[in-house]
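Data card: per-record layout.
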Amino acid sequence: MLFGESREIESTTAARTNMRELHFKSKLIQLFASNPELDGALG
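The structure for this 43-residue chain is written out next.
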């Protein structure tokens, strides 16, 4: 494996991790939006 290749794989993995985090956060936001009392209990 070339040095450049491993760099590319690293950035792809990072992008995938970011997507997963964004997806998770949007799910949480949807949950709070549909449950205001839940939002109040945590915030």
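Known properties of this structure: The CA atoms of residues 11 and 17 lie 10 Å apart. The helical segments are 3-34, 36-42.

See the next section for split statistics.
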